[in-house]
Amino acid sequence: MTESTKQAAPVADAAPATGRRDVRALLQERWQWLAAAALVAAVCFAPFQLVPFRVFQLTMVLVYAVALLGLNLLVGHAGQISLGHGAFFAVGAYTSAILLHDHGLPHLVTLPFAAALAFVLGLGLGVPALRLRGLYLALVTLAIAIFLVPLIKRFESVTGGAMGLTLEKPVPPAWTGLAEDQWLYFLALAVTALAFASVYGLLRSRVGRALHAIRDNEAAAEVMGVKLSFYKTLAFAWSAMLAGVAGCVYTWTIAFVAPDSFTVTLSITLLAGLVVGGLGSMAGPVLGGLFVVYVPSLSQDINKGAPGVVFGLLIIVVMLVAPTGLAGLAGRAARSTRKVLQKERRNA
C-alpha cells in the first residue's frame, strides 16, 4: 500500500462516521420537534378535557410561571438576589384592579399599564442595587415586600384597604364558544407564550451574554466592556415588569385583590419555587409554577396543616437530590438515557 493510500484510508473511514453523526443529529432534532408539537397539542387541548377547577389550577401555573420567569432573569441569569419579588407582583395586580374597578377599562388594556408601572419601580430599585450585593441586597428587597402590605392598607380610598377590591372576570367573546375558565386559560397561555418567547430571544442576544458575564464574574465582565450599572439596572426593571404582568393576569383570574394576598410569604414562595424548578433554565419557571400551585393543593387534601410542612420538606428533598433543581434533574436523566441508548446501539 502506498503512502498516499495509507493517508486516504482514515479519511474514507471517517466519512461514514460523519454521516452517521449527521443522521443521529437529524433524528434527534426531529424528535425534539415532535415532542414540542405534542406538548403544544396537550397544552391547547387540556382545558377542553378538564373540569373548571383543574383549568383554574393550570391557569395559576401559567401566572406563576411568568412571575418566576422574571425572577429567573434576575437571579438565575444576572446573579442578583431578590426577596421582594412579590411586591412587583402586587403592583401589577393592583394596577389592573384599580383600572378595572375605578375606570372601567377593558381587561387587556390594563396589561401594558401594569407592566409599565412595575418596570418603572423596578428601574428605581435597580439604582440602589448597584451599590449592594448578596445579603445586603436581599435585605433591601425583603424590606420592600414587608412595608408594601401596610402601605396598601393605608390608601383605602384607592386600594379598598384591608377589604380589597372585588372585580369581574374577562367575558369570553361569543364567537369563541369558550367557557369563562377556558377563556381565562387561553389569555394566560398567550401572555405566557409571549413572555417566554421574549426572554428566550433576549437571552440569545448580546444582552443575554452580558447578563451571564455579570453573573459569572463582574470584574471580568467590566474588563470586557460590559456596562455593569446599565445591565444590572435593566435586569431589575425587566424582572419587575414580568412580575407585574403576572400580577395583572392574576387579577383577571382571581377577580379579587387584597393586601393579605401579597405578604412577604409570596416573595419567599416565588424564590423557593424558582430554586426547586431550576435556576438559569427556561423550564425552571414552569416546573416551579407547578410546584407552587400543586404541592400546597395536594397536601391540603391530606391535612389542613400539612401544606407548610410538606412544602418545606419537599424543598429540602429536592435540594439534596437535585441541587440544580427539577430542570437539572430532568436534563441529567435525559442525558443518561441517551448514553444508554447509544451504548446499546454500539453493542448491537
Automatic annotation (TrEMBL):
The keyword Lipid metabolism does not apply. The chain crosses the membrane at residues 31-50, 56-75, 82-101, 107-127, 134-152, 183-203, 234-258, 270-296, 308-330. It is a multi-pass membrane protein. Pfam families: BPD_transp_2 (PF02653). GO terms for cellular component: plasma membrane. Keywords: Cell membrane, Membrane, Transmembrane, Transmembrane helix. The keyword Secreted does not apply. It comes from the Bacteria. One of its GO terms (molecular function) is branched-chain amino acid transmembrane transporter activity. It is found in: Cell membrane. InterPro entries: ABC_transp_permease, LivM-like. This is Branched-chain amino acid ABC transporter permease. It comes from Actinomadura craniellae.
